[in-house]
Design brief:
Layout: E1 4-9, H1 20-23, E2 24-25, H2 29-40, E3 44-49, H3 58-62, E4 66-70, H4 73-89, E5 94-97, H5 99-103, H6 105-108, E6 114-116, H7 121-132, E7 143-147, E8 150-153, H8 180-190, E9 195-196, E10 199-200, E11 203-204, H9 215-219, E12 224-225, H10 228-242, E13 246-249, H11 258-271, E14 277-282, H12 290-298, E15 301-309, H13 313-318, H14 325-337, E16 341-348, H15 355-367, E17 372-377, H16 384-388, H17 421-435, H18 438-448, H19 452-460, H20 462-477, H21 490-494
Parallel strand pairs: 1-3, 1-4, 2-9, 4-5, 5-6, 10-13, 13-14, 14-15, 15-16, 16-17
Antiparallel strand pairs: 6-7, 7-8, 11-12
Helix pairs in contact: 2-7, 10-11, 15-17, 17-20
């Protein structure tokens, strides 16, 4: 009889911590991949992805021999709480993985038995086999665990050379199409209608070194391809299961190998007769190849999600983006000239940023008719340099708290150098409201017959209330730490040390 492995991707609904979960069921590709390789290794596996609408089947979990969690900061506290109930149902080993666990394994080990760091497929299977056979786990690369009360960190697992498995979305519990009745059910259950945004991955690794990004650490800098036939088949599975023809490719940089990118797009386009529309992540440099953009559009790409990051040259240099404000402006225009929708990502809160930087960013997005944009704030984790000798953008003493639920790129978690955290959070809120204002939505509808700004604004609006509730907390925490010009008084922050509260009370 096969041993049972439960894989869980939690969603914390105690507060509106992120934007995506307000209006979409969007699975995390890594958790689907983990469930697949576990199944392929001879286990029975099922994925409960609360981010995609799954409800936990406690009878199934209680009968499991292993329980795996895939964690981001935003859902880690929910996972910690779930482990308490799981411990009352089964003595199965609990294993944490994902970006949060990779960065903060010691914190996670207060709630689990083993942590799998970074790319997890090979490590998870090796760990399960070792536990099955009573072997010494000290030989399993890529894990952290406790032994005799001490933390043991094994050497890193090499990144997987051959990504030669086909991911099976059918392993996701309750992942089905969303007919009108299900949309109405989601309106009742979540107070907001939700639709599927299916995802696929075609490559791993990113050759770039942006200062604020975890992607390179998790998946490496070497560009690795997945098999073309697997990608095309997975698209078919998505269409069959979800009835959706709009799919997001979640590679860190889809266009790093343009020749292979076009092979993928052409194969999907031909196999499904042009019925699939795709969104991809790429960089501003991609816009310089006009013929490539034309082919992307021809083969079904309708939106490019681009890390514009900033309209400040000083901040772009601090981020090591290798681009300028001029590059950003010209690139956006070139994408749009080829009929591609630009979803612009901006990251705010660098030491070079001021309140005016946020205002200028929103002005840029409106003036250049971005139909979608995201105002992120710097997301980082403490103690990376101290514990793992890896770089971090935010020094340990400048974190406001250690409530991981807010470590989600939407909420300010640090003391910026040139503006108060409450000012940054308020300007993010005002920026969203200005970008999605009724006046702008009406203008887009009247002059361009385009409803997308209005729809997107309505979709993201639930998080605005969380910003409003969070700002008074920030105002309280920043008292006495800034001068009359809103400049951080570094000496006073240093006096606070590095210990921080683990739960924010609003």
């Amino acid at each position: 009889m096969k041993k049972r492995v439960t894989v869980i991707t939690p969603l914390d609904r105690s507060f509106q911590f992120d934007i995506c979960s307000t209006y979409m069921f969007m699975p995390r590709y890594g958790s689907i991949s983990i469930a697949t390789v576990v199944r392929d290794a001879g286990y029975e596996s099922r994925l409960f992805c609360e981010m995609s609408g799954s409800t936990l089947d406690w009878d199934y979990i209680a009968g499991s021999q292993y329980v795996l969690f895939c964690l981001l900061g935003i859902n880690s506290i929910r996972a910690y709480e779930l482990t308490k109930k799981i411990r009352t149902l089964t003595d199965a080993p609990i294993i944490f993985g994902g970006s949060h666990a990779s960065v903060l394994p010691e914190d996670c080990l207060e709630h689990c038995d083993y942590v799998v760091r970074n790319e997890g497929e090979a490590t998870v299977v090796e760990l399960l086999k070792a536990l099955d056979n009573g072997l010494d786990v000290s030989n399993v690369k890529g894990i952290t665990y406790k032994s005799n009360g001490d933390f043991q960190t094994n050497p890193d697992q090499p990144f997987i050379k051959n990504l030669d498995w086909k991911v099976d979305i059918r392993l996701m519990h309750q992942y089905t199409a969303t007919p009108l009745k299900n949309i109405l059910k989601s309106l009742v259950r979540f107070r907001h209608p939700k639709l599927h945004i299916p995802v696929i991955q075609t490559t791993r690794g990113c050759p770039f070194r942006c200062e604020f990004c975890f992607g390179r650490r998790e998946l490496g800098g070497k560009y690795r391809r997945r098999k073309l036939e697997h990608i095309v088949e997975e698209v078919g599975d998505i269409i069959e299961v979800t009835k959706m023809h709009l799919i997001m490719i979640v590679d860190n940089e889809f266009c790093a190998d343009k020749k292979y990118s076009l092979e993928i797009l052409k194969a999907i386009h031909e196999r499904y007769e042009g019925r699939v529309r795709l969104a991809v992540f790429t960089r501003i440099e991609t816009s310089r190849d006009q013929q490539f953009l034309k082919k992307m559009k021809e083969y079904g790409v309708y939106m490019v999600s681009v890390g514009l990051e900033s309209v400040s040259d000083a901040t772009l240099e601090a981020y090591n983006k290798k681009q300028t404000r001029k590059d950003v402006l010209e690139g956006v225009n070139r994408f749009q000239d080829e009929g591609l929708v630009v979803l612009g990502f901006f990251v705010l809160g660098a030491d070079t940023d001021t309140r005016q930087t946020v205002i200028d960013t929103v002005d840029f997005a409106i003036d250049n008719r971005l139909l979608e944009f995201s105002l992120f704030v710097i997301d980082d984790f403490p103690f990376q340099t101290k514990l793992h000798n890896t770089s971090q953008m935010i020094p340990d003493h400048r974190f406001i708290h250690h409530d991981w639920r807010y470590f989600n790129s939407n909420h300010v978690i640090h003391y910026p150098k040139k503006m108060r955290p409450s000012v940054l959070q308020r300007e993010v809120l005002l920026g969203y409201r200005r970008f999605f204002s009724l006046k702008r939505c009406a203008k887009e509808l009247f002059f361009h017959r385009d409803l997308r700004v209005a729809i997107r604004g309505w979709a993201v609006s639930p998080i605005f209330k969380s910003f409003e509730k969070y700002i008074p907390y920030l105002e309280k925490m920043e008292e006495g730490l800034y001068d009359e010009n809103d400049m951080l008084i570094e000496e006073k922050v240093l006096q606070l040390g590095t210990a921080r509260e683990k739960r924010v009370t609003l």
